[in-house]
Recover the amino acids of this structure.
């Protein structure tokens, strides 16, 4: 056994990880329809006006505003309807004095008209007569050309996250493709002689691999591309060969082999192939975590226990991944509720304690670092600082939701 004699605080570990997580410089061109959630790598400018023509903002009648002046409930102005225009159509006639054109919301304004009277303020008379009971002023109920976006103007600046609304703005100017920041590619490697792929028969002392799936889900959910490598046995040669393969990607994430046993060899491989920035974080669960670099690529060695691995995935991998993907910092949703029962924590270690929300309170869900149900049956977690040893029942706690 090779015990971890020193650990570093979580904030120091995170600072080292973020420093090593340089934003990806690569870009790629993607279809606008698939660009949601990506980060724009070049400014998008408009080649057209939006809208590209003056258009009716209400269903009603396109008029010359001056022809409606003085209209009232007992003294309507009477105009003659000369045409009907729907969306997607172009008016064939201009509006002259005393005339109007029936028009649908979004249809192009006819020449000569400068306002729209809402249909609710009109009444049909005999033949083509339209009685107008309310005056309108020039440009009333008219959407002006380029009122939303003018040709040559910025639609979405570089570095912005493409939300559904920003995708809509790109679509409005007819953009087909955009340049976006490339997603970081994350090599995921599970290590250990006991690890078996799902679908295979379990032998004595073997367990199915969990961590490759939980880590892949985290990576895919926070702007990265998971690249799952075949699991590796606990030998220096196998782990070194796995690193050679993984160096084709942007980030290397190992699970297992980061603790203190004779077969926990990630630390040895990192020392031989690159540099170790820290080994051991003052957190619970997740203390036996190692971080370093090989050939300039960040390497994160996670504990093999599923709860420890997944917890550190949220705490350490997600911030680095989002920085490399140029995504905004992640802020989980928080609810403040009373703790259902007392929690005794370990002083000196920052603890992440999983919580299940029930009956308006926060019920502890943590079982053990090796139990995936500690996370699967939880709605979120609370953080217990290193200098706190007891959180009493009834105390209000901030639950960060998964």
């Amino acid at each position: 056994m090779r015990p971890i004699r020193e650990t570093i605080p979580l904030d120091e570990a995170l600072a080292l990880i973020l420093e090593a997580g340089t934003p990806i410089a690569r870009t790629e061109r993607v279809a606008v329809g698939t660009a949601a959630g990506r980060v724009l790598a070049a400014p998008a400018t408009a080649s057209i006006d939006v809208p590209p023509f003056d258009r009716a903002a209400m269903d009603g009648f396109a008029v010359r505003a001056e022809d409606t002046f003085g209209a009232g409930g007992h003294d309507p102005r009477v105009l003659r309807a000369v045409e009907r225009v729907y969306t997607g159509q172009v008016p064939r006639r201009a509006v002259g004095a005393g005339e109007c054109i029936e028009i649908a919301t979004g249809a192009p304004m006819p020449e000569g008209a400068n306002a729209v009277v809402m249909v609710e303020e009109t009444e049909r008379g005999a033949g083509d007569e339209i009685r107008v009971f309310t005056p309108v002023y020039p440009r009333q109920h008219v959407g002006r050309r380029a009122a939303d976006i003018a040709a040559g103007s910025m639609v979405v600046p570089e570095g912005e996250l493409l939300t559904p609304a920003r995708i809509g703005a790109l679509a409005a100017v007819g953009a087909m493709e955009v340049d976006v920041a490339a997603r970081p590619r994350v090599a995921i490697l599970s290590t250990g002689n006991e690890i078996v792929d799902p679908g295979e028969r379990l032998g004595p002392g073997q367990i199915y691999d969990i961590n490759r799936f939980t880590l892949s889900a985290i990576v895919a959910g926070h702007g990265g591309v998971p690249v799952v490598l075949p699991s590796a046995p606990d030998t220096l040669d196998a782990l070194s060969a796995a690193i050679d393969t993984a160096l084709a990607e942007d980030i290397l994430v190992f699970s297992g082999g980061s603790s203190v046993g004779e077969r926990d060899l990630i630390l040895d491989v990192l020392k031989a192939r690159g540099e170790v920035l820290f080994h051991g974080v003052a957190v619970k669960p997740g203390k036996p975590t190692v971080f370093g670099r090989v050939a300039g690529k960040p390497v994160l060695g996670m504990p093999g226990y599923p709860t420890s691995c997944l917890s550190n995935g949220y705490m350490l991998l997600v911030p680095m991944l989002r920085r490399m993907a140029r995504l905004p910092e992640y802020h989980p949703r928080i609810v403040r509720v009373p703790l259902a029962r007392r929690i005794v924590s370990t002083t000196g270690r920052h603890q992440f304690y999983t919580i299940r929300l029930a009956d308006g309170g926060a019920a502890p869900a943590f079982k053990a670092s090796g139990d995936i149900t500690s996370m699967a049956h939880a709605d979120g977690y609370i953080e217990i600082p290193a200098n706190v040893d007891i959180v009493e029942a009834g105390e209000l706690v901030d639950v960060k939701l998964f």
The chain has four domains: 10-26+182-324, 27-50+157-181, 55-143, 334-401. The mean pLDDT is 93.
